[in-house]
Every structure is written in C-alpha cells, then in structure tokens.
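Human: Here is a favour to ask of a fellow structure person. Comparing notes only helps if you start from a blank page. Give me a protein, with the fold worked out from its sequence. Please set it down just below, with no commentary around it:

Assistant:
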Amino acid sequence: MTNEITDRQKEIINVSLQLIAENGIQGLTIKNIANKIGFTESAIYRHYENKIQILIAILDFFKDNSERFFANELQTNSSAISKIENLYLVHFKSFAVTPSLVAVIFSEEIFRNETVLVEKVQLIMQNTLTLMTGIIEMGQKNNEIRIDIPAVALCTIIMGSLRMFVKQWQMSNFSFDLVIKGAEFINSIKILIKN
C-alpha cells in the first residue's frame, strides 16, 4: 500500500482525472490543474514535483483500490467463479464512477517513454495476474473451472477480455451502462471458464 495522501493531494488527483476525462491525457498539465483548482502552479509543485508524479499517484490510487477489491474477495467463502464475477463487477463500478481512470490505466502506450510509469503499470498487471491466477487455480482444484486450459492462460483470457470490454465502453464515449452490460458480459465469461 502507498503512503496516505493529503486532502490537497486527493483534490489534485481528482482534478487531474477530470482534466483527463475532458481533454485526454494531453490535457493534463500543471497549468491546467492550477487553473481548474484556482491555485498558482507553484502551489501544485509543493505537492507533486511534476505531471509524472501525479500520474504515479493516480496509478497508486487504482492499485490500492484493486488490491483492496482482491483482498475483500479472497476473504469470502464464495466459489472461484463468484469471486471472478464479483471482481469484474467492482472494477466495472469503479470505472463507471471514474471513467477517466480507464484513460490512465489502459494507456501504457502513452507511457512508453516514461520508465517509472511503465514499471508501475507492469507491477499492477503482474499483481493482478498473480491474484487472479490463484483464484482460477483454486477453482480448478475444486472442479469448478475447466482444467483443459492452464490457469495462467485462462487468466490472460479473462483479464484481456475485461480490458477489451472496458476499452469498447471508453471508445464508444461511454455510450452504454458499463455495470449492466458488464453483468451480461460476465455471464459469457462464466460459460467459457466453467467446468
């Protein structure tokens, strides 16, 4: 988990997400953040050294939430398939509340020249793959999930389809209800992975 952030840092993160939602990642500048909050640019710099530090904070915010979602689900006694379904749903709900997160989380191509951001996204992906693979292996052991496909491959299929589905929602300018359509989509995933 990351260090606790201040209320002012939360405000900067929220405004940054608003700017990304309105103008894309290129709209995120210290000047735009300062203007939107009504601060001087130097006031922003007291909390974050630069735009990269703000993007790191956004990625940490997502990472912490995602880890919390997994931790909550891993503590339940529900089946592996129910855990996967619940994880999909909480992520869909999180993206529906803050759509601009999608622009940051699924934009690793924009980060190509920023090693620290690439490494942060890779860490999030690796943690997610490890946790999801563990859930799938548990489901395979309990005869809930098909065993003819290795857990790692099923994990890639599940996580890749989640990414594609959320990107379709984003690219359609959020034209459908992510949570409602997402629940339908999850049913298809369950059919694919059930034993």
